[in-house]
Design goal:
Elements: H1 11-37, H2 44-65, E1 69-73, E2 84-88, H3 94-98, E3 106-107, E4 109-111, H4 120-126, E5 130-132, H5 138-154, E6 158-161, H6 179-187, E7 190-196, E8 213-218, H7 228-259
Parallel strand pairs: 1-8, 2-6, 2-7, 3-6, 4-5
Antiparallel strand pairs: 7-8
């Protein structure tokens, strides 16, 4: 698969930009965590606002340092202040923070071990995110469903979930987990598939970041009420086909630039 970035840029420059971006990213993240420490006595919404600003800043760091760009498409599909699920393809860390500013009150499910990380774990707990013990099997899925429903009953939240569970490199076979279907059935809310091409520019297990146009697209929702198997098939097929479309779009754009 031909990658959609500028191969003519010297590797030394790619490495320099990447290291600079990583330093800036962790500096901003550390500073944000310190700021959140002072919001602990305040209502939960304060830390959500800070997290959304962090997501915006980190997204723009990519455009400033790496010389790339990013676009969020399909915002018009979302309804303001609704309980819903955003089920996204997972290729990089970029989508984990870039999706934060897109919704009103983001909700994440995370592995319980992260609670033990100073500042970061405290922030997750204060923000009302949901820890889960991944080693508990079916019990973990039931607990995840129950706690998510409780959160959406207390407040209007938008669950951002990655159905494959972990990052998948570009071109890797999809590996969707059934947990998203249980959530869809139990919560009885709309589910918005989210396609993206981030893996082209933020490769898994690589320190190198690439310049290019990152696209994250929120697709029309799957309405509640489908049988779990039908939902799972529609969701996975939609995310995969539309992510492949975005990857091809990026590759064509680079081909046009090289031709000119």
């Amino acid at each position: 698969m031909r990658l959609a970035f500028n191969l003519s840029e010297p590797f030394q420059m790619q490495l320099f930009r990447s290291v600079l971006f990583i330093i800036a990213f962790y500096f901003v993240t550390t500073l944000t965590l310190i700021v959140t420490l002072f919001t602990m006595p305040l209502p939960r919404r304060f830390i959500i606002v800070i997290a959304k600003h962090w997501g915006t800043i980190c997204s723009h760091l990519y455009t400033i340092i790496m010389g790339g760009s990013f676009e969020i498409r399909g915002r018009e599909h979302l309804r303001s202040h609704e309980n819903c699920i955003l089920a996204a393809k997972h290729m990089s860390a970029f989508e984990t923070f870039a999706l934060l500013p897109v919704v009103d009150d983001p909700l994440f499910i995370f592995k319980r071990e992260l609670l033990h990380i100073p500042l970061f774990g405290w922030g997750l707990a204060k923000a009302g995110m949901i820890p889960v013990d991944r080693n508990s099997g079916l019990a973990a899925l039931k607990s995840m469903q129950k706690k998510t429903k409780e959160k959406m009953t207390q407040d209007t939240r938008q669950l951002i979930i990655f159905p494959e569970g972990t990052r998948r490199p570009v071109g890797a076979p999809p590996d969707y987990k059934s947990g998203v279907s249980l959530l869809y059935k139990g919560l009885n809310v709309r589910c918005y598939p989210v396609a993206l091409n981030t893996g082209l520019f933020w490769p898994k297990d690589s320190p190198i970041r690439r310049s290019g146009k990152i696209i994250i697209e929120i697709l029309p929702p799957i309405e509640p009420g489908l049988p779990m198997d039908k939902f799972f098939e529609q969701l996975s097929n939609t995310i995969e086909s539309q992510s492949n479309r975005l990857i091809s779009e990026a590759q064509r754009a680079v081909g046009s630039q090289e031709a000119s």
